[in-house]
Design goal:
Blueprint: E1 2-5, E2 15-21, E3 28-29, E4 34-39, E5 44-48, E6 53-58, E7 65-67, E8 71-76, E9 82-85, H1 96-109, E10 119-122, H2 161-170, H3 188-195, H4 229-244, E11 247-255, H5 257-272, H6 279-293, E12 299-302, E13 307-310, E14 316-318, E15 320-322, E16 325-327, E17 330-331, H7 339-354, H8 360-363, E18 368-372, E19 391-395, E20 399-405, E21 408-422, H9 428-443, H10 446-450
Parallel strand pairs: 1-9, 9-10, 14-18, 18-19
Antiparallel strand pairs: 1-8, 2-4, 2-7, 3-6, 4-5, 6-8, 11-21, 12-13, 14-17, 15-16, 19-21, 20-21
Amino acid sequence: MIDFKFADIGEGIHEGVILKWMFEVGDKVEEGDTIVVVETDKVNAEIPAPESGTLKKRGAEVGETIHVGETLAVIDDGSEEVKEESPGEDKPADDKQDDAEDKKTDQDDEEDDDAKESKKSDDNASVVGALESSDEIMEASNEHTEQSEDKVVNEKVLATPVARKMAKDKGVDLKTIKGSGENGRIMKADIEQAAEGKEQDTSTSQPSRATYSMPKMPEDRVRREKISKLRKAVVTAMDKSNTLIPATTVMDEFDVTDLVTFRKEQKSRAQNHDVKLTYLPLIIKAVILTMKEYPIFNASFDHEKEEIIYKDFINIGIAVDTENGLIVPNIKDADRKSIFELAKSIDELANKARERKVQMSDLQNTTFSITNYGAFGSKLGTPVINHPEVAILGMGAITKKPVVVDDEIVIRDMFPISLTIDHRVIDGGDAGRFLVKLREYLSDPIALLLN
């Protein structure tokens, strides 16, 4: 008997909504068969069966929320003992005793007879398969009020198994944390926030952001709409960024007349490579060359260890506006691509994002992000840093303007930009030097081809 858990599939995802079951209880399943599609914050994940057998139980039905560590399905493989497909990370040997105690407590809470059987840990973590395209964003249903396996009795704090393990690894006292999950449950994000020195003071009477309530309104004259899972992910990311990062934005305007001319001249060559040459790949190329001279912009800051993490890879995140919300997939090893290759990667990622075909790997390990609010006619903005990155570039619309050149008024193509930086590790002088170098590359597009 296999107790198949919903695994931590990365990017801070700790819950999902059942989108579609591919098998009914009693059906035969083969190892590798997709048994269920789960909608997470940013992707729809097809979950394959870990082994062949008969589907004996479904942990949640369509529209219901399931958390990391909870039973996704029980599969009868013909064995008498219950084997557990463990979620997420492998467990060190010195954690086994603590985990066993957690499992025993969890088992005491579980009302289902099958889950009360003795369990044997298995080193094989559950595997997430391919991703399915879906235009439907299901609203999160109310979570069941029964005690689930991540609920602890005897007045212990509520925390998921993954969160408890992370707290132990990071030396965080769960009793000092106010959980952001259902009924105050402590999630992975809460542990990460506490570890970075942002522990919430549960003894204070001042309400936190999560406890602010809306003033009373005439309910017969308003309309309420549940936010989608993707919008919820955006809310979480923005809250985290604004809570952790003391950000400031530097703005400038570049004369890119020569860049505009260069792009027009290269359009025919781009067509021969079957790509559409926009300004974005040219700007990305200029950003990459600038970052190589100022590597702090391709770094992250480890607040807990007080260390700056310099990366020897460059993955450029591209903010894509979809009908369901903002998604930021990234171009892997962008510094190794030509301008035409960058253009092709941009098109591919944008199409995948809009069709909800983005894979988790497309979202992970972004080192620097770019957002183009100029695509909607805007000129200036203050973009929000995508933690744990330390900077983000915002692009406005390129427009013709009268400017003074050599004491004469001439019409030039001007490009407004905004650079938001993490002021913990990047100073205003660093931002200024970055923009000066970026202006040099964008004012002289030939340099983009020579580097």
